[in-house]
Amino acid sequence: MTVDPLATAGALLPLVGGPANVVSVAHCMTRLRLGLADASRVDEDALRALPGVLGVVVADGTYQVVLGPGVVTRVTAAFEELAGRSPAGGDPAAREAGQPAPRGTAAELAARGAALKEERRRRNATPVRTALRRVAAVFVPLIPALIGCGVLAGVNGLLVNAGLLPWLTPALAAVASGFMALIAVFVGHNTAREFGGTPVLGGAVAAVVVYPGVAKVTAFGVTLAPGQGGVLGALAAALLATYVERWCRGRVPDALDVLLTPTLTVLVAGLATLYGLMYAAGAVSSAVGTAANLLLETTGAFAGLVLGGLFLPLVMLGLHQALIPIHTTLIEQQGYTVLLPILAMAGAGQVGASLAVYVRLRHDASLRTTIRSALPAGLLGVGEPLIYGVSLPLGRPFLTACAGGAAGGAFVGFFAMLGDRVGATAIGPSGWALFPLLAGDRGWGTLLAVYAGGLLTGYAVGFAVTYAVGVPARAAAPAAARSDGGAPPA
What's the pLDDT tens digit per position in 148-166? Predict the structure, then answer.
């Protein structure tokens, strides 16, 4: 279904309370994220029924409208333009000049909305979830570079194995590997920015981790290796640098701040990184890699069953963010993460379940339209439109989708036990979009066969279980039968 961004934005704006009720506008891959002054002003039923809207989620103090990949970017731009130029939003020049807003408009609504938002934040922001969100904020901005470099690394590997274009492969290797060689610097930069430090100081301290000269440093009888500790060491180093910087800011005289604070930050955090953090983070990183490999080699089928089956609930709870540093560590160590192809099977189960719903609910034209719109994104690994637009509102199909994910994960895990490990050179994509990023310890044909077999298994089991028991009989009944009290079909 083709979505007109301007028309969709124009229809959305009054349904969320108008421009005066919109405090902030942002978007991710699939959702328009709105900060609202007063969430009670939203006409949620009309919003869900709006063509092009695949679902509505209220989480983390924001009102999130699921629109799907690509569409959300265009609709967000149009929404911002409409909200900014609408007369109901007030005069921007007057606001910039400091003139007070009229009573009952943005100022009062923003104050009331801030109180509501703070109440929700206190209720939902547990320490664990807050920490995971902040760690995810460090790594998520790196995903586009990981994807681009991962695809190039895969293409270069194919060319090298085939003996093609030998004059080009060294250049491709340099382009694909440059980011990974310096990923610690980017992690340090993002960590300092997220935790309230100066980003460039976080990057400077994290750069110590990958500096070749650390090979000359010996402490406790052990010589360091460049890159030891990887992204975990960079994260810890930049975090320490942030706390050192903030400590200095409150104690160093203003006249000396520009000189002493950066110097002390880099010195203290840098030495602590060399003589402690790199060792500790190196041990943790090695343990992560060893544990992942051992898990799949010994209990691959069972591990795949559990991981593939539980990944959708983890996403719903936001706990999947804890896996991002693990994926990144495995990619940095081994060149690929063996966990992502297994977790991607959850999306396959979701696609199979949605197809079963599409077949069973022939009378529900609106839901079938939603499935048709969201299915291409689901096949490419973006499952949110199907989750929030189809399976989660219906309830039972969400559980049967987990069953499909468990079956696909068990399939991939079983072959890992046989030595056919399938990994991904980047995080972010899944579904069909993961094919260009596949890597492992076997040939390209084996990798394709195992991963494709897992997807097909997830599709088939998700479809079969949902078709059999995943759609409540009353939901499958025609509207006329439900309205007149007639018995639903068996």
Answer: 888 888 888 888 878 889 8
| Domains detected in the chain | 5-125 (3.30.1360.60), 137-292 (no CATH), 335-483 (no CATH)
Catalytic-role residue among 28, 149, 248, 402: 28
Instruction: List pLDDT tens digits, range 199-251.
Output: 999 999 999 999 999 999 987 788 899 999 999 999 999 999 999 999 998 88
DSSP conformation class of 337: B
Measured between alpha carbons, how far is 363 from 355 in angstroms, rounded to an integer? Answer: 14
The arithmetic mean of pLDDT across residues 127-134, rounded, is 79
Is 248 annotated as catalytic? no
CA–CA dist 436, 448 (Å, integer): 10
What DSSP state is assigned to residue 4?
A: -
pTM for the whole structure: 0.74
466, 397 contact by CB (below 8 A): yes
Task: Return d(Cα 77, Cα 84) in angstroms, integer.
Answer: 11
User: Can you name the residues that pair with 439 across neighbouring β-strands?
Assistant: 423
The answer to whether the beta carbons of residues 385 and 328 sit under 8 Å apart is: no
